[in-house]
Structure formats: C-alpha cells, structure tokens
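Hi team,

Below is the intake form for Inner membrane protein YdcZ from Sphingomonas jeddahensis. Please confirm the fields before the structure is written into the shared record.

FORM ID: S-0412
PROTEIN: Inner membrane protein YdcZ
ORGANISM: Sphingomonas jeddahensis
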Amino acid sequence: MTAFLPILFAIAAGLCVAVQSPTNAMLARSTGSVWFASLVSFTGGVTLLLAIWALVDRTPLAAIRQAPPWAWVGGLYGVVFVAAVAYATPRLGLAVTLTVTLAAQLSMAVALDHFGLLGLKQEPVSVTRLAGLALVVAGVFLVRR
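The structure came back. Fields below:
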C-alpha cells in the first residue's frame, strides 16, 4: 500500500509525457521554432510551479544552498528533453519517439543505479535488469516496424 502513491504519480507522469510531446510538437510546428515552443512550455510550467510554491509549499529560498552544485542543472535536462521530443515527434511519430526516449531513460537509469551516481542508492546491474532493458530496446524496434 505504501508504494501506491508513488506508482500513481509515476503513471500520471507517463501520461503527461505522452500528451506533452504532441502538444509541444504542435506548438513548434505552429510557431516554426522548437526553441520558442520550448520556451512557451517552460514558461507555463514555471508559472504553475511559482503559484504552487507560493500558495502551498513556501520552502525558504535559502534552502537551495543545501543542494550540491550539480543538482542545480536539472532544468537543463528538461530543456533538452522538451526540445528534442518536440522536434522528433512529428518526424518519427509519438510511439516511436517515446519508446526511444524510454529505452534511453532506462539505459541511463541502469547505469546510474549500478554506480550509485547522483545521490542514488547503488543497485548493481543484474541479469534480470539487463533482460528487462533488452526487452524495452526490442520494443523500440517492434514499435518502429
């Protein structure tokens, strides 16, 4: 039961990524710029986050000093993701784009877990994990066909 809420949040995140990709792709196509579409997308996100922080959370700004320097660049990864997916979706299709990104995400996750990087608990690579990853990669090829 304790894993239900995180799983629910992960499902919501997956659904949002699936809807976000064609939404941003349409914005990029309409404006003629992946970068401007990404800027509009992030502006909407920042606006929502500021409202939630101001109304609900209110963590003091000084708390950011506790984070290591590498933790400040997470938004940069988001820029790459949003722009790349907005570019790739109309060219590859949504299913192919998302299966490729999912395979890349899981490959990186296995490596980060194995070495315990970025503050993660170390989870050694196992035959089972590699088999699961191989199935996802195989899924990319099957979806692409």
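SUMMARY LINE: The radius of gyration is 18 Å.

Thanks, M.
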